[in-house]
């Protein structure tokens, strides 16, 4: 269903930002490209719902290490900034994640030069009451389905500090392989991160048939993709089925 149409003087015009129609659904979670209302609600998760004092799952000067309005402003302006930079050359897709109709967290994917390198990286968080029930794994499974099946990715990458066992657990459970290490900063100082890589081939072994992507076709040109988001010849022989630009699709 197309939601983002504009009606001016009774004339219906196509969506200016068709990503607002993009959603990915699994039997357990619904990921919808985040609206401003979603981003405001998710910015408010910087109140200890995700990260308590002393916990350091994120690198850099994350808004999760702040409290009060400054934390929420940093969170939402960070998302707005990334949304406004989104183009074929670099894009950032933020999704509000709902389970049983409840807003439980956020799942992002980001890519640079995607049409050429076909690589995405992911970021996510869940509010504490919803953890340990497989929802983190489910939302990552949804986003990599979008990346590999919907967009024709060849590689999905994920990094986690060595003490972030749930994040590493998701990667391992979904077939990612260890891909080296890096050192990144967090409030207590530099710390080691593990890198994980999921190739298209390994994703294909585990790919699910119960994940549905809706509203993608109209966004493909915005992301630098043509109507067939097929990987470069030689990189991977798999054919990615993406329906024609401008059509409504319902893919599984
Ligand atoms: C990372 C996060 C999204 C994981 O969500 P979750 O719903 O708790 O994780 P799941 O229940 O889906 O577990 C995923 C896998 O990790 C494993 N796992 C979870 N916690 C674990 C732990 N403490 N030790 C070892 N394995 C663990 C699970 O067993 C599962 O693997 P399995 O399917 O093989 O059993 C959540 O913990 C979170 O929001 N953390 C704070 C933010 C963060 O760290 N984000 C990621 C960094 S960008």
Keywords for this entry:
single chain, 252 residues, alpha+beta, Aminopeptidase, ten-stranded mixed β-sheet, two-stranded antiparallel sheet, 6 helices, 25% helix, disordered C terminus, binds coenzyme A
Write the layout of secondary structure elements.
Blueprint: E1 6-8, E2 11-13, E3 23-25, E4 30-33, H1 36-43, H2 68-85, E5 90-99, E6 102-112, H3 114-117, E7 119-126, H4 135-150, E8 155-161, H5 165-173, E9 177-186, E10 189-199, H6 200-206, E11 212-214, E12 250-251
Parallel strand pairs: 7-8
Antiparallel strand pairs: 1-2, 3-4, 3-11, 4-5, 5-6, 6-7, 8-10, 9-10, 11-12
Helix pairs in contact: 1-2
Structural write-up:
The chain is α+β, with helices and mostly antiparallel strands. It has one domain (23-251): 3-Layer(aba) Sandwich (Aminopeptidase). Helix content is 25%, strand content 30%. It contains 6 helices and 12 strands. The chain has helices at residues 36-43, 68-85, 114-117, 135-150, 165-173, 200-206, and strands at 6-8, 11-13, 23-25, 30-33, 90-99, 102-112, 119-126, 155-161, 177-186, 189-199, 212-214, 250-251. A hairpin with a 2-residue loop joins strand 5 and strand 6 (102-112). The radius of gyration is 18 Å and the shape is globular. It starts with 5 loop residues before the first strand and ends with a strand. The relative contact order is 0.16. Residues 232-252 have low confidence and may be disordered. It binds coenzyme A.
